[in-house]
Amino acid sequence: MEVDKVHVKEEHKYGGIKAMPFIIGNETFEKLGTLGTSSNLLVYLTTVFHMKSINATNLVNVFNGTCNFGTLLGAFLCDTYLGRYKTLGIASISSFTGMLFLTLTAAISKLHPLHCGTAEDSICLEPTTGQLAFLLCGFGFLVVGASGIRPCNLAFGADQFNPNTESGRRGINSFFNWYYFTFTFAMMISLTVIVYIQSSVSWAIGLAIPTFLMFLSCVFFFVGTKIYVHILPEGSPLTSLVQVLVAAIKKKRLKLPEQPQNTLFNHVSIKSINSELPYTDQFRFLNKASILSPEDKTNEDGSAANPWRLCSIQQVEEVKCVVRVFPIWTAGLVYYVVLVQMQTYLVFQALQSDRRLYSGSNFKIPAASYSVFSMLSLSIWIPIYDRIIVPFLRKITKKEAGITVLQKMGIGLVIAVLTMLVSAVVETRRRDIALRHPTLGIEPRRGGISAMSANWLIPQLALAGLSEAFTIIAQVEFFYKQFPENMRSFAGSFLFCGFALANYMSSLLITIVHKTTRTSDTENWLAEDLNKGKLDYFYYLVAALEVLDFGYFLLCAKWYKYKGTKSDQNLEVPMDKLQSTKPLV
To answer: Major location, coarse class (predicted)?
Structure first.
């Protein structure tokens, strides 16, 4: 149902504020549910399903990669057909179903292999084909859920702010920080309380809790249905991109006029939600798509009769926005590999370190819970940066955000290099103590437990969290603001596609290192028993790749031109494109 502009403006301004409790509640419970399931997944596969560490690591990497790559399809369906509300509703139900499947694999004995004996030489049965099929079916539902939730969640929350008011624009700027803060809070709970229950009490109960939290997330989401505001999908934004490329190729032999900004075709549809972009000289070849030749005809409303032969400057500039983002995006791929290591091999380091709370204590911190220190570092830094450092920098630089998003990314990349160097030094110390001093026992199916306190892993985790606070949040903001408004779900998927490639790259790197450094069946850099391996060498290798990546990023950042608008309001969205959502069912 169409409504007038004034009514929609007021609804968007105040309805967005009313919607925030439901949005934040949904996001918090969703993150608690999905992270509570996935954060300890590596340990679950090695202990309950008896997988070797390298196989489990690769499966987790492929699973995470597929979840993240699926966001492209989710974003396409969202921006083209479904809209964010319906996409999030379907995806939330799918995530709940997938988590229910995983819970059943732990709760029903026939759905997982029999437990191994306690003896070091005990035989562990491998999972049957049926058990693996049921497990992978749960993964499939989780992939569908992640593919819809990840690209749409952030954009849907930002849609609730009125972009035509100063408070709304400032709210969007802070929203990116606080969205990630909510994510971090959920991660901390997942990596402490839920992981402890999974590792020390019961896997069935530990997986049932996040499943129930995901159910609450669905409830919170649908209860707020009548309050939400959303931007209606306009059809596939990819079609316009392809049309520009086709038209430019067809007119490749034509010459651009001397003053192209004044003579090229530039019809802007009044129905478009995109802000009007100024003419730029970058990628001049694409400008040929807007040359108005004698063969070109226009409709009565001024639009091109054949959009595959004639495109407006506005369309061309939207394509340039997307093309300009690609080099910056590729510069982040190697960076994500650092984060992958903090989620995989750090767990194995913790397993072969002294995880006692203090000397003489019987309580051991679960290996997967150490990642909470990365989240803690990020959670502490975000409010300090947002409320203290940004206002201070704003006075110096005269920029609303204090520093540019690319500067924030660069700082995070430098910290990532330090993270891997510290990780390598700590691993060298852990292995040396394990080899030169009495061990604290044997970690089943691995090796001796080093007497080095696992607390030595905290500095590298703190650095990783600080790096995320700069780079990841900056990338979220960068993609959201630099993409055309009708492609913001695609913008959200870009970050996760980077994560996906990083998971695949990490898996490939691990496989190559595992094979090329093998000296025997049990000894290589990434041996099952870390005391027989050279994990620190692997960390140095990743650090070297990070240094090269940082150099590439500097070149891309120097070349990049930020998206500009004629109104100088990047987040402008015509209010006649907003309307209250209708129920999914």
So the answer is: membrane
- Per the CB < 8 A criterion, the answer to whether 570 and 454 are in contact is no
Tell me whether residue 168 is exposed, middle or buried, using C-beta atoms within 10 angstroms of its C-beta: 0 to 12, 13 to 18, 19 or more.
Answer: buried
Q: SS in 3 state form for 507-568?
A: HHHHHHHHHHCCCCCCCCCCCCCHHHCCHHHHHHHHHHHHHHHHHHHHHHHHHCCCCCCCCC
Nearest to residue 238, comparing CAs of 29, 72, 465, 409?
72
Q: How far apart are CA 74 and CA 232, in angstroms?
A: 16
Residue 573 pLDDT > 50: no
pLDDT of residue 93: 93
Q: Kindly report the number of other CB atoms within 10 A of residue 432's CB atom.
A: 14
pTM of this structure:
0.71
Q: Would you state the torsion angle of the CA atoms of residues 552, 555, 558, 559, taken in this order, to the nearest 10 degrees? A: -110
Mean pLDDT over the full length of the chain: 79
Q: Considering only CA atoms, which of 496, 21, 430 is closest in space to residue 221?
A: 21
User: What whole-number distance in Å separates Cα of residue 289 and Cα of residue 247?
Assistant: 5
Q: Residues for the chain: how many in total?
A: 585
